[in-house]
Amino acid sequence: MLGVVAACVTGIHCGFDSTYLPGLKADPMATFEPASTELVFSHNDSDGTSLGMPRHASVTRSLLILDQQNSQAVLEEFVSQAESVGWVLSLSPSEVYAGSKQLEAGLGQIHIGLAVEDPLRDPDGPLVVVVILDYDRRMSE
Would the pTM of this model clear 0.85, i.e. be above it? Predict the structure, then answer.
């Protein structure tokens, strides 16, 4: 217990789920899983500090597209759902949808895009939709 307290005081790492993670987890995009997909990875990271710098919460999800021929349509389904729950999105030059909306703890950010499920082992493998929810890093400045 003393080690955890010392780590928090020195700013090495403190991962308390107090301010930011609940708002992200409450957003509908944190659990959106249409029938055309299967969840293959999910990770919730709580807020805290890392090496003395603020590190805010994030929710990351990868969902396997069951019908690979319709990957673009599945991506558009995620984009449509995000917009319907208040996210304002735009398509970046790297073909990732990025956007924001006001959440209880601050300005939330979302990124939605297609990626290969396991690019290191199988660079031509199946596609997944990756959804990342976090907060605007400028909040900590």
Answer: no
